[in-house]
RNA sequence: CCUUCGUGAUGG
């Protein structure tokens, strides 16, 4: 039955949705049993291409037919698939079900849940998940980044920045991509000062900013008529040997 | 013990 997973893995990586759908219908009929790990893996293949509905059906069918006894990992995989599809109600149902079966939550359970609340702009719920993650000591760099990105999307640049400072205190650091996305986001909200501060942190962390960042920062400064600072950045950019475009 | 495919985020 690992044959199914080998196929599913390839199909999902090459985004062959229809064959994957067919495969997911086929698996329960085959009557071969899956370890909780193997089911989780398969569910994850489905989830990664957005087949949350079939992931859901497959999960139940496998359990009802006695072909798999899902465990905490299988549930986490299912929840990840469901949260990514954005159906909050279903996600909450599954969370309750999971608890009912005696499986505890961990950071892999809650991170996608928080993400789903963020995407649905369910502010209260997202924060409440965040707080429990804090209490449990599960709030790591990814969780902070995720929230900071959402705050930025909501126009709450100050709160996002606060989170970044909180990370500093705990000596967690953003990666290059996150810095980049956050700075772009700050500028989209025309918060040039905060963007510059973040830019400073980025360089302190040892990253070399790329052209697009200079481009967008200089643009922002010009719009603010802070041409002196803009020119300053421009010459700095050339010192780094980056070609202006 | 011949059971274990094992996980999460992001812009132009």
The string of secondary-structure elements, in order, is HHHHHHHHHHHHHH
Helix fraction bin: over 70%
Shape label? elongated
Kindly report the average pLDDT value.
Answer: 96
Radius of gyration equals 22 Å
Q: Uncertain runs with pLDDT below 50, 5 residues or more?
A: none
Specify the number of helices: 14
**Could you give a short account of the major beta sheet?**
none
The class by helix and strand makeup works out as: mainly alpha
Q: Beta-strand percentage?
A: under 5%
Number of strands: 0
Question: Span between N and C termini?
Answer: 54 Å
What does this structure look like?
This protein has 245 residues and is mostly helical. The protein has helices at 2-13, 17-30, 36-48, 52-64, 72-85, 88-100, 107-119, 123-136, 141-153, 157-169, 176-188, 192-204, 211-223, 227-239. It binds one RNA strand of 12 nucleotides through helix 1, helix 3, helix 5, helix 7 and helix 9.
Compact summary:
The protein has 245 residues and is an all-alpha fold. Helices cover 75% and strands 0% of the residues. The protein is built from 14 helices and no strands.
């Amino acid at each position: 039955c690992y044959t199914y997973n080998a196929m599913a893995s390839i199909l999902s990586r090459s985004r062959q949705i229809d064959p994957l759908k067919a495969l997911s219908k086929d698996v329960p009929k085959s009557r071969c049993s899956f370890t909780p790990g193997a089911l989780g893996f398969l569910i994850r293949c489905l989830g990664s291409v957005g087949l949350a509905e079939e992931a859901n059906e497959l999960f139940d069918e496998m359990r009802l037919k006695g072909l798999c006894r899902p465990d905490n990992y299988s549930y986490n995989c299912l929840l990840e698939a469901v949260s990514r599809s954005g159906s909050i109600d279903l996600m909450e149902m599954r969370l309750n079900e999971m608890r009912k079966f005696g499986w505890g939550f961990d950071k892999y359970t809650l991170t996608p849940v928080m993400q789903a609340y963020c995407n649905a702009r369910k502010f209260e719920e997202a924060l409440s998940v965040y707080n429990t993650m804090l209490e449990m000591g599960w709030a790591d760099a990814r969780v902070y980044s995720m929230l900071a990105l959402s705050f930025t999307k909501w126009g709450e640049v100050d709160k996002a920045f606060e989170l970044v400072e909180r990370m500093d205190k705990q000596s967690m650091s953003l990666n290059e991509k996150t810095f980049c996305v956050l700075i772009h986001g700050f500028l989209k909200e025309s918060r040039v000062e905060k963007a510059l501060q973040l830019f400073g942190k980025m360089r302190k962390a040892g990253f070399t900013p790329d052209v697009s960042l200079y481009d967008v920062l200089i643009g922002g400064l010009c719009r603010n008529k802070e041409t002196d600072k803009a020119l300053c950045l421009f010459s700095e950019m050339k010192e780094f040997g980056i070609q202006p475009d």
